[in-house]
Amino acid sequence: MIAAALPPGEEGLAITAGVRSRKIIDNVATIVLWIMASSIIVMLAAFIAYMVYLGAGAISLSFLFGVPKETTAGGGIGPEIYNSFYILFLTLMFTVPIALSAGVYLQEYARPGLFRNIVQFSAESLATIPSIVMGLFGLLVFVYLFKWKFTALGGALTLTLLNLPALMRVTQEALASIPDTLREASMGLGGTKWQTINRVVLPSAIGRLTTGVVLIAGRIFGETAALIFTAGLSVPFNNPYDLNPMRPAETLAVHLWYTHSESIVPDVDRIGNGSALVLLVMVLLFNLVARFAGSRLTRHFTGRNS
Amino acid sequence: MIALEARRSRRTERFALSMLRLAAGSVIFAMAALLFYLLFEGTKTFYVDKFPVWEFLFSPTFSVDDNHPGAAVFIVGTLSVTIFAIVIGGPFGIAVGIFLSEIAPHRMTQILKPAIEVMVGIPSVVYGWLGLTLLVPLIRTHTSSPSGFGLAAAGIVLAIMILPTVITLSEDAFRSLPPAIKEGSLALGATRWQTITRVLLPSASSGLAVALILGIARAIGETLAIQMVIGNATQFASGLFAPTAALTTEIVTDMPGATEGSLLEHALFSMALLLLLIAMVLIVCVRFALRKRA
Amino acid sequence: MKRNAALAALLLGFSVVATSTASFADTSISIAGSTALLPLVKDAAGAYQQAHSDVKISVSGGGSGTGINQVAAKAIDIGDSDITAPTHPELKDNRVAVIGFAIIINPSVTVKNLTKKQLQDIFTAKVTNWNQVGGSDQKIVVINRPRSSGTRAVFTKTIMSGEAVSESGLTEDATGTVVSVVKQTPGAISYAAFSGTHGQGVNEVSIDGVAPTDDNIISGKYPVWSYEHMFTYGPATGEISRFIAFIEGNAELVRKDGFILIRDMKVSETDR
Questions:
Q1: Among B212, C143, C182, C198, which has the minimal tally of Cβ within 10 Å of its Cβ?
Q2: For C89-102, what is the mean pLDDT?
Q3: Residue B254 Cα, gap to closest chain A Cα (Å)
Q4: Is the pTM of this model over 0.90?
Q5: Residues of C with CB under 8 A from a CB of A
Q6: Rounded distance, CA B14 to CA B22, Å?
């Protein structure tokens, strides 16, 4: 196009001009991509700053450890935070053994075949199920069928189903990252397959496993849809820090949704903003701990840095 | 002595293996139980209440009093909010994926990747809360929408939520390309942008398809964040900023009050079944796309 | 080393469950349902537990439909509702108070009175602008409650004469949310219980010239009211029946939270 406007014999100039327009496009595109990538960082920073601005005023000892009030101002979120951790603990108690075992089986033992395929497919399907559908399933089974009513245990079991696939994938990836030479060395020294896995491979993978578990823990902490119908929307009034798993257990995340959706206290905005901020801070903490603990453990068990 | 040790460890071996197999089997059991229960409860609308499947999927009237729970409103709602999200989040996510794998210097990656991880970790209620306190008032003051709740609010929130998924998977897709094709293109004199658009993008197309499909899956399954901002009006969205409802939001709005055994409860479970089926179809699509790559 | 850690974890788990059996001995009452009745039940629960420290009461909302639903499924002990439950003969109806419902509008709307016909037209979307009913040029934003809401059922029965409310409005889950959305949205109109609306910064509209006050309800002039029901599965017994009696007899609490004592009513209805 530019070449057509030039007198004959000047094609060399045309090629240079063509190159220049391509370079311009390349530079423009690069700038655009830089802007897009930076906007994500800016957006995230803005969200965090906004939530700190909104919620910081609500944070106080009485907020973090006090009980919620449903009709007057001044309520706190102490029991909800407790319930979040309690349900997290319960869920991990079930999820970790099952997911770890299934992951080890799939990665180390299973031979390609029908059983292996079905397990993989089941795990993938479980992973794509929307959490609300899982919550409905929990409602059907634990609340209606087992007649447990709303319980922390029902919520934990539902969350186990929800997070099994993720933890299985973490396990498989962690195991895959361990070089076979390690396994061969162990077997060469006379170890059986299980001994190899138990005493050599798993410890080597513990860094990545821990990172994965803590990240998933962060996700469990923020889960809502699956818990609304299984663990309920209330906290036992007289003994909110109960250890009994068979009672309703409203978590912080559920409380945030409930506050938006139902609350009639005059300071609903304050409680909502404070709860959102606490949730955000917890997620950031989980992220940090995941990285830190992961790299520390890897160095401890393997002497390497990753 | 050694023989005793060997026998014990063989027994441990067998025990360990059977325990592991049991765990793997329980995954299958869980999935099967879910499928069975949802099929059982979700088809009651059709064989107990005798409401035709065709009408459920395509009738625009959702009225429980008239025994006519046509779910088309919610299906269209889910589709529109998902399309909105993927139209915004898809290209943006792929672009940032390109950036991460081809352009970003190490320092930038060190900031950007943790930022994306944090975004993944933020609970959906918090995104919903942000949408409620930040986005809805913005829409209310700057557009014709009187309340701010509606399709646009839900679509934007959803787009932000699926960004991390699309970005990470796109980046993976580009990183897994053989370096030779990139080097070859550059050696022939193409600029980096030309290489990206004419060589890398087409080669990574199946990986990018996976990224988009999984982004769509995430969008379709999201419940609470959209429920807080979509307005929950049982009607087709009359405009980009009009309130509407989706399958997931309808379930969470009406399920608590639905009597066991009522038509409404059956209809809601049919919607849940529909969501499950859509999810499984998406998995098959992903497998298909992955096979094409190989 | 790992085996010891696993055993320790197991023991810890056992002790957790074991110590928790201590709380099995307390009586616990779980209540859910109407968000209109919620303030009264919450306040009563607080007062009751202060007097009886061995009783644990947990209260939440969810709407009248949820309350009836869950008590019928025996998932909770008491289901609060603004409406009767004729499809559930196994539930025992315990009426505890009377509540009025107001038509609330955003303060930007200058209309002070609406006729029943105008209300019907607004909520069936036949009238869409405030200037059609005496206000300024402003789009009417209808806000509804979910289908299972008792408040919505009362509204439909007393104002809509059985005609269905149009679905083209926003839907909000609970009394509290409706009030706060109406407060924020210019041109909004909805219906909610006195217990959630009085003094909350929204305007209450007179219907056919009758103001939404307790006196007008007691005399029967204002039509939008209902009994508050606390349903139990079968007749209420033990601590549950004592708690219900406590609420019904607590005149001070009932009036403070915006309700009316049943014995003060000069009119009565059988189907509310």
A1: C198
A2: 91
A3: 12
A4: no
A5: 2, 13, 16-17, 19-21, 23-24, 26, 28, 30, 32, 35, 38-39, 42-43, 45-46, 49, 53, 55-62, 73-76, 172-177, 179-180, 196, 257
A6: 12
pLDDT band, very low/low/confident/very high, at B235 (cuts 50, 70, 90)? confident
Per-residue pLDDT at B117 exceeds 80? yes
C173 vs A237, A243, A262: nearest CB: A262
Cβ neighbours of A70 in C, within 8 Å: 38-39, 42, 59
**What are the phi and psi torsion angles at C102 (to 5°)?**
-110, 150
Q: Chain C partners of A71 at a C-beta cutoff of 8 Å? A: 38-39, 42-43, 257
Task: Tell which of C60, C151, C182, C233 to mutate to test the A interface (max A CBs under 10 Å).
Answer: C60
CA C116 – CA C47 distance, rounded (Å)? 40
Which residues in chain B are contacts of A128 at CB distance < 8 A?
A: 217, 221, 279-280, 282-283
The Cβ of residue A114 has, within 10 Å, a number of other Cβ atoms equal to: 7
> φ and ψ at C184, to 5 degrees?
-90, -20
- For residue B293, the model assigns a pLDDT of 60
Across A93-97, B10-14, B284-288, least confident range: B10-14
**ipTM confidence:** 0.84
Cα separation, B11 vs B16, whole angstroms: 8
* Token pair in block for residue A255: 């409380």
Q: How many Å apart are CA A131 and CA C144, to the nearest integer?
A: 26
Q: Is residue C80's pLDDT more than 90? A: yes
Instruction: List CB contacts (< 8 A) between C188 and chain B.
Output: 146-147
Chains that touch C (3 or more CB pairs under 8 A): A, B
Subunit contact A34:B103, Cβ cutoff 8 A = yes
Q: Report how far residue B13's alpha carbon sits from residue B10's, in angstroms, rounded to the nearest whole number.
A: 5
Are C32 and A143 a contacting pair at CB < 8 A?
no
pLDDT tens figures, A197-228: 888 888 888 888 888 898 889 889 888 888 88
